[in-house]
Write a structure and sequence with these properties.
The protein has 7 helices and 2 strands, in the order ββααααααα. By secondary structure, it is mainly α. β1 and β2 form a beta hairpin. α2 runs antiparallel to α4 and α4 packs across α5.
Length: about 160
């Protein structure tokens, strides 16, 4: 068989299946590394501030509305925020999902609150609902699919 930890070779080529397990371990270690948590939270904060500032520029929403609807913009932006919050939090996958959904719900409400102060914008509870629904779908998929795609994800998430 060979030395433990050594990749078996067949006819001078690396076997795909021999490298698949170490690769998923490496991806799991990367996704749940404590340093990535800090970067994820910082990225979520920066993205949220960008959303607030860009949404406050007169005419910006109308200009970008030519390319994507409000629901598409909200669902995409808040799905990315939910992913960043998910990987930035700690605990089990379910705990991470709950924390991320709550964080996105608060950010979405804050976004709508800020919009209510601008005469050319308006707060809409439907936008907030899209934000929350996007976070629920994203975090549910992450919680359900990560253990299937990365077998060590559940145990790595608890660290």
């Amino acid at each position: 068989m060979g030395v433990p930890g050594q990749i078996p070779r067949r006819h001078g080529k690396v076997s795909f299946f021999a490298t698949a397990v170490p690769m998923t371990d490496a991806v799991t270690a990367l996704l749940f590394h404590p340093r990535l948590r800090k970067l994820s939270i910082a990225g979520a904060g920066a993205m949220y501030l960008t959303i607030l500032v860009a949404g406050s520029i007169p005419g910006a929403r109308a200009d970008i509305g030519q390319y994507a609807s409000g629901a598409m913009l909200h669902s995409t932006a808040y799905a990315v925020l939910a992913s960043l919050c998910f990987f930035g939090s700690s605990g089990s996958l379910a705990a991470r999902a709950c924390k991320a959904v709550l964080a996105v719900a608060a950010m979405g409400a804050g976004d709508e609150f800020v919009q209510s102060f601008f005469p050319y914008r308006g707060a809409d509870v439907r936008d907030w609902a899209v934000d929350c629904a996007s976070a629920v779908v994203t975090c549910s998929l992450l919680s359900l699919l990560l253990p299937l795609l990365l077998p060590g994800a559940a145990s790595a998430a608890r660290r």
